[in-house]
Specification:
- Chain A: GO terms for molecular function: 2 iron, 2 sulfur cluster binding; metal ion binding; monooxygenase activity; oxidoreductase activity, acting on paired donors, with incorporation or reduction of molecular oxygen.
- The complex is a heterodimer of chains A (355) and B (268).
- Chain A is an alpha+beta fold and 355 residues long.
- Chain A is 32% helix and 14% strand.
- Chain A starts with 45 loop residues before the first helix and ends in a 16-residue tail after the last strand.
- With 268 residues, chain B is an all-alpha fold.
- Among the domains of chain B are: 42-124, Cytochrome c-like domain (Cytochrome Bc1 Complex, Chain D, domain 2); 133-218, Orthogonal Bundle (Cytochrome Bc1 Complex, Chain D, domain 2).
- In chain B, 53% of the residues lie in helices and 1% in strands.
- In chain B, helix 5 crosses helix 10 (181-190), helix 8 crosses helix 11 (205-218) and helix 10 crosses helix 11 (205-218).
- The chains are: A alpha+beta (355), B mainly alpha (268).
- Chains A and B meet through helix 1, strand 2, helix 3, strand 4 and strand 7 of A and helix 8 of B.
């Protein structure tokens, strides 16, 4: 793999490498700067001229094949000998199943050695003469063309397609109509979401239920610095459409010292510093609930969008395009937190008609 | 009786009656007030006193003379004994140097001193106390339920199996491998540094124990190993990097070997 053979150095030793001086393939004049250099002259490998070296290569290849055979035997032995629940420590993998490791290692070795043996064989012993195989012409010979055309005309005449107009036209009609079936299926790309993404399960008077305990939340449950995952009351994880509904309705509740809340509207939509935000990131909908209680930042784990929950969930960083929607909450007569309505804007990622 | 009645309009009568009433109230209180509280208080107040002494030396610089906080450290009024036990017991406090967050390091105080400090801080205001062992014993929890709860409440920062992860500006959620269940419980209860707290109203005591049982199942030295190179358990990013670098690297090396010019006799 040395590159100095490619340099046109006019030393007497290397002179034969210059295109203009090559006798075999130099069909072009010597003064043509774009002359086809042709193939470099064939150089024999050591194995081509030294039978000892060839024998060594043969032994290496055979060794690889023998190793593969042994590995296959080892595979069968592993399968028979190692109990399925045996755990062994192997650096750097740690504790692994001995059977899995043994089977994988031996089978991998068996396959690799076959491949490596074949490659080594091809590289050292098989002929390495460079050969040029010219492309055949794309155009068929005239007699073949004439024959095919004659066959075609004969077939057309026998089918009577030119004579029976009704048959021909109805066939063309059928063929042109049949793609409509595929076209109609494209309708399944729709329909447009219309209002579906704008409404969630939250409505006026919906209780806010703790996701972990399934109990409705009261204001005193949520202390400053805590984080509570919640869902609307009446949405049961066993419901058929739970996944679709929770994907829009999941919220998190935090409580801030009222004087820490910078956004006046956000403070008014909360209750005594308790703020309820959609936890669906407005970028592509991951749950953005990495809440830092000292900075009041909520992060999205997917693309690091950062929202400032003390400032109306304003986007501080990252690809999210909108603040997290806030749910207006209040306390009902029984002392439980409830929603004052649905989100004002669609929660979750932007979509075409969001506006 | 007549004599007493005759003096009821004396200028000092009201004063005498007041004195008598006060003496009676005081006497009644002295006889009826619970006596055993006194013995308890002396041991407790001794611990508080010792804690105050330790606090003045080791903590007051940042947290203020009375735990009221300063520009260098938050107020400790109302954080409770559990927070002290966690912060000092894991070596996070006293802080070694200012930084994005306090790092875990070998603890500076003995458990006895930590208890005294905790007693002093607890005396500043009501807060969470150090949990009983029965509350955080992993054997008492349901790991399956704990897994659900962990994925809902904790995995966003600490990763699905508690391997930890990065936050903003150099902060991080630490790996929970082999963390003492007591400290996991206290961390959930008190919300150290930027971690939000999960008071018992948000995650009940049983919920916390379930979460500890789950972590004990998946992320301790004694938890069962299912095999395989975990690559830190960081998920698709780490695994993808490994596959691209090691796997495709090996394939490229093979391809280079297959395509390389074989050794020629003239140059060997």
């Amino acid at each position: 793999m040395s590159s100095h053979t490619d340099e046109p150095e006019p030393s007497p030793h290397e002179g034969e490498h210059l295109p203009s001086q090559r006798d075999e393939h130099s069909a072009v004049p010597a003064d043509d700067p774009f002359a086809n250099p042709g193939l470099p002259p064939h150089e024999p490998r050591r194995q081509d001229i030294d039978e000892q070296a060839a024998k060594r290569s043969e032994r290496s290849v055979s060794l690889l094949f023998a190793l593969s055979t042994l590995a296959t035997v080892g595979f069968i032995a592993c399968y028979v000998a190692i109990p399925i629940d045996k755990i062994v420590y192997i650096w750097p993998f740690g504790h692994v199943s001995g059977l899995n490791f043994g089977l994988g290692l031996t089978l991998g070795l068996a396959l690799f050695c076959i491949g490596a043996g074949a490659i080594h064989w091809a590289r050292t012993l098989m002929s390495d003469e460079e050969i040029v195989e010219e492309r055949h012409a794309i155009q068929a010979p005239p007699e073949v063309k004439a024959h095919v055309l004659a066959e075609f005309r004969k077939g057309a005449a026998e089918s009577q397609i030119g004579r029976r107009r009704l048959l021909r036209n109805s066939m063309l009609g059928a063929l042109s109509v049949v793609p409509l079936a595929g076209l109609v299926l494209l309708r399944d790309l729709g329909p447009l979401p219309h209002e579906k993404l704008r409404h969630t399960r939250w409505k006026k008077g919906t209780l806010i239920v703790n996701e972990s305990t399934a109990q409705p939340l009261r204001p005193e449950d949520i202390v400053v610095g805590s984080l509570t995952q919640a869902r609307p009351d009446g949405l049961d994880p066993h419901d058929e459409n739970f996944a679709n509904e929770i994907a829009k309705a999941a919220v998190m509740l935090v409580r801030l010292q009222p004087e820490d809340i910078k956004d006046q509207r956000s403070a008014e939509w909360g209750h005594e510093g308790i703020l309820c935000f959609s936890k669906i990131c407005t970028h592509i909908g991951c749950p953005a609930t990495l809440y830092e209680q000292q900075t009041h930042h909520a992060l999205c784990p997917c693309h690091q969008s950062t929202f400032d929950l003390s400032d109306g969930a304003r986007v501080l960083f990252g690809p999210a395009g909108h603040p997290l929607p806030q749910l207006r909450i209040t306390v009902n007569d029984d002392g439980y937190l409830e929603a004052l309505g649905d989100f004002e804007e669609p929660p979750g990622p932007s979509f075409w008609e969001r506006g | 009786m007549k004599k007493l009645s005759a003096r009821r309009r004396h200028p000092l009568a009201a004063f005498v009656v007041l004195l008598l009433a006060l003496a009676a109230t005081g006497g009644l209180y002295a006889t009826l007030a619970p006596g055993e509280a006194k013995a308890d208080n002396s041991a407790q107040s001794l611990a508080i006193e010792e804690g105050k002494r330790l606090y003045d030396v080791g903590c007051a610089t940042c947290h203020g003379n009375g735990g009221q906080g300063s520009s260098d450290g938050p107020s400790l009024v109302g954080v409770g004994a559990a927070a002290v036990d966690f912060q000092v017991g894991t070596g996070r406090m006293p802080l070694q140097q200012p930084g994005p967050q306090a790092e875990e390091k070998p603890e500076v105080y003995s458990q006895e001193e930590i208890d005294q400090l905790a007693a002093y801080i607890a005396s500043l205001g009501p807060g969470a106390s150090v949990p009983e062992e029965s509350l955080y014993d992993p054997a008492g929890g349901d790991p399956a339920q704990g897994g659900e709860l962990f994925r809902t409440n904790c995995s966003q920062c600490h990763n699905f199996s508690g391997q930890g992860g990065a936050l903003t500006h150099g902060k991080e959620a630490p790996n929970l491998h082999d963390v003492d269940p007591r400290y996991i419980y206290e961390a959930m209860l008190t919300g150290p540094q930027n971690m939000p707290s999960f008071p018992n109203t948000v995650l009940t005591e049983e919920d916390k124990q379930d979460i500890i049982a789950y972590l004990n199942e998946v992320n301790t030295s004694s938890s069962a190993h299912q095999g395989g190179l975990s690559l830190g358990g960081y998920g698709p990013v780490g695994e993808g990097l490994f596959a691209w670098v090691a796997g495709i690297g090996a394939l490229v090396a093979c391809a280079v070997w297959i395509g390389a010019r074989s050794t020629k006799a003239r140059k060997s």
